[in-house]
Amino acid sequence: MSSSSAPLVLVPSSINIDETFAVPHIVRPGETISSLDLTSRPGGKGANVSAALGLSGVETWFAGNVGSDATWPLDELKKRGVKTDLAGVLEGEKTGRAFIQIGEGDGENSIVLLKGANFPSSSDVTPDSVSSQLPRPPTHLVLQNEVPLSTTASFQSHARKEWQGCVTVWNPSPLPTRDELRSWKWDELDVLIVNQGEAADLIAALSEGEAGGDKEEPEETMRRLSSIESMRQLPWIVMTLGARGVLASINSGGDRILISQPPHKPKQVRDTTGAGDTFAGYLVSSVAMLGGKGLPAEREVVEKCLRRAGVAAAMAVEIKGAMESIPGEERVEQRMKEAGAA
């Protein structure tokens, strides 16, 4: 593959410092508990996805901002093969923070965000400025919702209009408001990644139906989501189910194919914080490494992409930390061979 046709993934998104408290259990309303430990690590959904992409072996460019108080998270991205030339250091702003509780017994987490430099008063992270600095147009664009929604929307629209064949992926977490979701340009999107709770909230926001929630069978949640008018033409809808695996609805010639991928069982569960971002990064990487333009619709190819992403996510929960827990490409390939999933 020539350098001019090699995949290039752009992630204009968030970067944080994760202040992680190890606790006996997630604190309840009105309760005060003592933490067992405190660690400071790099994080943020954009940075985590970028790290997963970089470690997976695909060329990745991160575009986001840190404050002048703490720039070291950018160094951590560089160590993982991510290009940070597009990142800004903003004077007078604080680097974003995530205050995370990790339950010692079950590894579940609870997170409070400080937006900081991820929501600056002004920023050079715009589609035009990024385009002028990239060596070639991106083949894949990965978006979340930890930076201003207007920024995310501008990159999505720019990709559709200016970056021919660019595959746009959106993991809208935290979920935007009902009005924001209803006005979103879904026809500019290629891949939607949500968990079941987010899928249920999307259904409630975009239709007159009830949310359903986690108690509803995943297949029914996916059926209701993919049947909403604004969702019908989406090439891929991917719904992560945690320990239950992943479900995907693929648009194949106007018909939707439902693909269920069973979970890959981790050797132990230490911390689930970065699992979703690891999954998203490795899923995009798997698609990007196929070469060509657009998204595959063949069941076997989609299953292989989902499987690789699922194995990487399962490995991420075995180690504490978000970015630090993301496995590299060689380890993922070895685990897939061991599990007979290659």
TrEMBL record:
UniProt keyword list: ATP-binding, Carbohydrate metabolism, Cytoplasm, Kinase, Magnesium, Metal-binding, Nucleotide-binding, Nucleus, Potassium, Transferase
Pfam families reported in the protein's UniProt record: PfkB
Gene3D superfamilies to which the protein is assigned, alphabetical: 3.40.1190.20
KW tRNA-binding (keyword) present: no
The Carbohydrate kinase PfkB domain, residue ranges: 11-327
Family annotation (InterPro entries): Carboh/pur_kinase_PfkB_CS (IPR002173), PfkB_dom (IPR011611), Ribo/fructo_kinase (IPR002139), Ribokinase (IPR011877), Ribokinase-like (IPR029056)
EC number: 2.7.1.15
Cofactors (names): Mg(2+)
PROSITE patterns in alphabetical order: PFKB_KINASES_1 (PS00583)
EC class: transferase
Any one cellular-component term (Gene Ontology): cytoplasm
GO terms, biological process: D-ribose catabolic process
Membership in a protein family: Belongs to the carbohydrate kinase pfkB family. Belongs to the carbohydrate kinase PfkB family. Ribokinase subfamily.
Subunit structure: Homodimer.
The protein's name: Ribokinase
Species: Jaminaea rosea
